[in-house]
Amino acid sequence: MVRQSAGTGSVHEGILRRQSARESAARTYARALPIVPVRARGLTIEGADGRRYLDCLSGAGTLALGHNHPVVLEAIRNVLDSGAPLHVLDLATPVKDAFITELFRTLPRGLADRARVQFCGPAGTDAVEAAFKLVRSATGRTGMLAFTGAYHGMTAGALEASGHAFDVRVTRLPYPQDYRCPFGIGGPRGAELAARWTESVLDDPKSGVPRPAGMILEPVQGEGGVMPAPDTWMRRMREITAARSIPLIADEVQTGVGRTGAFWAVEHSGVTPDVMVLSKAIGGSLPLALVVYRDDLDVWEPGAHAGTFRGNQLAMAAGTATLAYVRENRLAERAADLGTRMLSQLHSLADEFPCVGDVRGRGLMIGVELVDLEAEASAETEPGAEGEGGVGGDPAGGGVGLRSGSDPADGRAGAGATARDRSDRAVGPTDAQGAVRAPRPAAPDIAAAVQRECLRRGLIVELGGRHSSVVRLLPPLTISDEQAAAVLDRLADAVAAVARGHTRPDETHQSRRRNGARAERAG
Ligand code: PLP
């Protein structure tokens, strides 16, 4: 795999050296992934040093079709060759018209026939800001409901500094988690408790939370550590918000376009949100972001949401090609199928290596959480908390004994996992007194070591999660079975090397600093 000459090596080193001397201390991926990509195709990136890597970061989940897919390149070339303008603000063009037609064709039923679209500045975070503005205008209210572990972007205060007096008051509510359930229960009942908490915050006149303008959620939290929301919980959020006239905003920036095994992740639960925030894959690897919403929310005055770069014709053409290719080739189904198989193999890895605390995901959005075996599991919860008739019984069923990703009614990838002993990998195993044992502490250093060992083996993976202890896989939906096997082989090899202590020391402290920053982002 290593095809490095003295010449290519020095180019590579020189570029990296100049990067660290000239670019901001806030740079992120570049710290843990000191590579210099020069060519890429599909899953593969080639570095300036001649090394080739399997890219399971995919531009932070942007590249649904991998790098430089032929249909994407053709779409871009067609626009370039046609002499069409590349920059047109929000004017109508045939390229944009075709994009909207393809986009609306894919939207969840219930939204498609009543949808309006607003193109935003080119990043996901711009579309999130637009969604907040929209629901504030529509409801006349200001506060927002969001969830622990959420990640919606990096902008803050741009509107404030522009003289818009938007008081962004956000109330954080518990996002359901199986492995580190804040209620110590996990599974369907943990999710039900999380839903009840949300309900009580909204209905208790003394909760200190006035009726909000909207609720924003990710159907699968990505940066938060690959947390698939149970479908029952998604439906509860829909019911709770609908009953109180609170617009529900689904942030599908990372989960959209087939990534989770459905074209849009909300489709798993059948929930129709009032607003969807879309970016990443919809631009076919080029910057594009938009907000789609039901027409009755369209109370904006002309110019209420503006921005110079809302008419990127190349991104729209690349996006049209990507959306159509995913739809026509049923890549969402492919993601569901392959994701389930990959998760099952990763469960075997977890059985072999106790430092793998949990494996979870949906479709081709997969997370492997590393834990610290030398530290004691943190807290214990009440005896019998899992027993029949415990708090928050699950109307949809789901048996005791099924652990991580374990709600059969939810159909999440991994739901078919057996109830074999995953002692340190699941909330739920009980000790002799019947107390539910908490999982072992997260191990960001071990995760960073696995990431480094993956890179040494030619595999690019991302870290995420509240503690930056989750190795994340976001391969393109076009990944072949053979490539998936190669990814899992390299990952398994890296985990084995770390578990056996056969790793190279961390040359810099940069990855740790970067991970700390991401952990903060993930809340
Ligand atoms: N929303 C979600 C769910 C995301 O994962 C991200 C980025 O990772 C964003 C919003 C922000 O998108 P951007 O980085 O393009 O601003």
Helix content: 25-40%
Distance between the termini: 38 Å
At CATH level 2, the architecture of the domain at 6-66 and 332-374 and 413-522 is: Alpha-Beta Complex
* CATH H-level superfamily title of the domain at 6-66 and 332-374 and 413-522: Aspartate Aminotransferase, domain 1
Strand line-up of the largest beta sheet: 4-12-11-10-7-5-6
Major sheet description: 7 strands, mixed
Q: What share of the residues does DSSP label as strand, in percent?
A: 5-15%
Give the count of helical stretches.
14
The molecules bound to the chains, other than polymers, are: pyridoxal-5'-phosphate
Low-confidence stretches: 379-409, 413-431, 507-523
**Rg for CA atoms:** 23 Å
CATH secondary-structure class of the domain at 6-66 and 332-374 and 413-522: Alpha Beta
Structural class: alpha/beta
What does this structure look like?
This protein is an alpha/beta fold and 523 residues long. It has a domain of 214 residues: Aspartate Aminotransferase, domain 1, CATH 3.90.1150.10. Helix content is 35%, strand content 15%. The protein contains 14 helices and 19 strands. The strands form five sheets. A seven-stranded mixed sheet has the order 4-12-11-10-7-5-6. A hairpin with a 5-residue loop joins strand 8 and strand 9. Helix 5 runs parallel beside helix 10, helix 11 packs parallel to helix 13 and helix 12 crosses helix 13. 52% of the residues are buried.
